[in-house]
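Me: I hope this is not a bother. Any chance you could explain this protein sequence and its structure tokens? It all follows right here:
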Amino acid sequence: MNSLGDDAKNHGSAVGLSVDKITIHGGKPLVGRIELKGAKNLVTKAMVAALLGETPSVLKDVPNISDVRIVRGLLEVHGVHVSEGAEEGELILDPTNVEVAHFAAIDAHAGSSRIPILFCGPLLHRLGEAFIPDLGGCRIGDRPIDFHLDVLRKFGAVVEKLPSGIRMSAPNGLHGAKVELPYPSVGATEQVLLTAVRAEGITELKGAAIEPEIMDLINILQKMGATISVDTDRVIRIEGVEHLTGYNHRSLFDRNEAASWAAAALATEGDITVGGARQAEMLTFLNVYRKVGGAFDILEDGIRFYHPGGDLNPVIIETGVHPGFMTDWQQPLVVALTKAKGVSIVHETVYEQRFGFVDALVEMGATIQIHKECLGGQACRFGQRNFNHSAVITGPTVLKGADIEVPDLRGGFSHLVAALSADGTSTVSNVGIIARGYENFLTKLEILGADFVLED
């Protein structure tokens, strides 16, 4: 089996998924109500933040996804005691006995995850040292690693590259720093926050990401005793403190999963109520959804998304950092746009190689062309770098069933949506990758009336 297939099986088995291939009989509207838990992009970082406290933390609405299992394993090899609380999705994280972990143990739990780099700041504060195994360029890339290391050096970390990985120490402790990001990166902002809160002095971060998940992480750190201010010009200031305590926090809902199910309702001409979704964090998505021709009702405990009948409308979308249209929203929505009457354009400005998933859609009958040029309203940082980052979708087209291999998390869910909306039968393999960020997605498909069978 190839490495992608192995990775898919590992993610699926981590959450009890015994198969990695499903056969879908498409063309049936998805109808019903599903419930969301916390956001993958907040919960995993909140678990790391527990390392900074000197007392246990309680995190609620934690989804049963493989990325959570990975972080839990990494915390446990560092001596954190993790246990389930009284309610479903509640974790108690006790960092009292934090200890140094061996390279091999970290590597065994990390897999292809980038999360170990975010452990470094908290571990330097707690233990005075931290280790990162040799994650390999193909799994994380040199530039992200180097950027994180440069940030940690600004705080006073000493970085030593070894054959087995990277060792960091802080012989003089960590001190506040001035950091300016060339792009409002979520990961870089998280790194600065998790390092600065216990660093001596004041840290100023310019060009910070301000996604709702970042703001919720700031809420958590403030509950722990941190002093953090956020200005309207993407400047975050952190006054370091000597001690932090644990937190008690209910996670922000997963707005990316909410948008995925909304796109599924539109593509299948269905009617899906997403329990736990909130209007405020999805304002930009809801505006675009309405322009495409989708309808929604804001409820007290969720949002109902549905296809009201009639033709869908073509749109021009440019992805961007918050409060723009999120990159994770565009992939499932592209499937719905294949059914819109006219020409839609999606200009991807966040990730340079996000359109690999459309190959399967074209095989299923979609008319999609990929371009290197910036086809939105403005040029972006990828425009002169030879990346395929704009898509032109012409519709309406009728998708036909096909054999599909899931390439990644959001692209994989998009393939599920395509198969569910297509005429005929599709076989989707590597579905375990979807378990990285979508809790119980097969159970949710059953609730919504999808017609599928699991393959051994």
Q: What stands out?
A: The chain has a mean pLDDT of 92. The longest strand covers residues 342-347.
